[in-house]
């Protein structure tokens, strides 16, 4: 068996989708993700009310939020707005930030990891010392500082989260690239005069695709949780744009008397993060079992 063959991640039998659907946990994760994505995409048609409409009949005679009912499926918030409609629009916000921030983090982390791992030397040393420096800072604290410096918006929040989430990807890809760069089939390509871009594009990157997919999927759950945390702390997505985190932040004072205002958005956050974790674990085991236990 050649080095090139040995380096190729084993492929699961049959399609990846069939393999995922055969696993109860990953099937559950896929259902949750598809449900959330569907709700976000078709939000304008699924929302029974305008999510920012402060309805006169959305509060009790005492001015308190209304509990779940046939009229307001998940109840209303402290301003009389329909919670179900706000959660659906919040799914849009969380998924947009989650995918955008994680996409940037994956691109940045993979670029740094591949560059440092392939070239090594002083280039790799500088890049990985910078990565270690970034990893030394608590991610949440760094994100709060960055979010406080810049005016919060969807794009800024996504960029802030990406700036603190790329380091794990960089470390994983660096380790794998470093190992691949020392294999005999790479040395043969160098001896044959293949360009750096050809070696990276045709002989190294294909062996990293599975790792990037797996850790990219797992990273979305971290991104969703971090976005919700920042919004809850008031430095993430700002009202009136709803996100699951700022819905909890706005209604936390009513937790004792109207627990649905915190329970339902909290449940949405947990379900989406759990779903991406379950899917990422299943992808790891299906695409490349060698990655098991490395996240």
Automatic annotation (TrEMBL):
Signal peptide: none annotated. InterPro entries: BP-dependent_transpt_permease (IPR050366), MetI-like (IPR000515), MetI-like_sf (IPR035906), OppC_N (IPR025966). It is found in: Cell membrane. Gene3D superfamilies: MetI-like. The chain crosses the membrane at residues 27-47, 95-121, 208-234, 254-280. Its main location: membrane. GO terms for biological process: peptide transport; protein transport; transmembrane transport. Keywords: Cell membrane, Membrane, Peptide transport, Protein transport, Transmembrane, Transmembrane helix, Transport. Residues 91-280 form the ABC transmembrane type-1 domain. Pfam families: BPD_transp_1, OppC_N. It comes from the Bacteria. It is a multi-pass membrane protein. CDD domains: TM_PBP2 (cd06261). One of its GO terms (cellular component) is plasma membrane. PANTHER family: D,D-DIPEPTIDE TRANSPORT SYSTEM PERMEASE PROTEIN DDPC-RELATED (PTHR43386:SF1), OLIGOPEPTIDE TRANSPORT SYSTEM PERMEASE PROTEIN APPC (PTHR43386). Belongs to the binding-protein-dependent transport system permease family. This is Peptide/nickel transport system permease protein. The lineage of its organism: Bacteria, Pseudomonadati, Pseudomonadota, Alphaproteobacteria, Rhodobacterales.
């Amino acid at each position: 068996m050649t080095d090139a063959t040995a380096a190729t991640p084993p492929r699961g039998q049959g399609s990846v989708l069939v393999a995922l659907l055969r696993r109860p946990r990953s099937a559950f994760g896929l259902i949750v993700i598809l449900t959330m994505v569907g709700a976000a995409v078709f939000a304008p048609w699924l929302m029974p009310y305008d999510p920012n409409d402060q309805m006169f009949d959305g509060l009790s005679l005492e001015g308190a939020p209304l509990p779940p009912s046939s009229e307001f499926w998940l109840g209303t918030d402290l301003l009389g707005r329909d919670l179900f409609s706000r959660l659906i629009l919040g799914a849009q916000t969380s998924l947009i930030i989650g995918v955008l921030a994680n996409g940037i983090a994956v691109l940045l982390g993979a670029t740094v990891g591949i560059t440092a791992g392939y070239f090594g030397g002083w280039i790799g040393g500088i890049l990985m010392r910078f990565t270690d420096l970034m990893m030394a800072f608590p991610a949440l604290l760094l994100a709060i500082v960055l979010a406080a410096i810049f005016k919060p918006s969807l794009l800024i929040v996504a960029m802030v989260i990406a700036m603190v989430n790329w380091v794990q990807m960089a470390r994983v890809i660096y380790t794998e690239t470093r190992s691949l760069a020392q294999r005999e089939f790479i040395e043969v390509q160098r001896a044959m005069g293949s360009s750096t871009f050809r070696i990276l594009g045709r002989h190294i990157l294909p062996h990293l695709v599975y790792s990037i997919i797996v850790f990219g999927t797992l990273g979305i759950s971290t991104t969703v949780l971090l976005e919700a945390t920042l919004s809850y702390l008031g430095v993430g997505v700002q009202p009136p744009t709803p996100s699951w985190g700022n819905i909890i932040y706005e209604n936390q004072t009513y937790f004792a008397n109207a627990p649905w205002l915190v329970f339902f958005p909290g449940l949405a956050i947990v379900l989406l993060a759990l779903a991406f974790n379950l899917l990422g674990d299943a992808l790891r085991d299906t695409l490349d079992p060698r990655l098991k236990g490395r996240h």
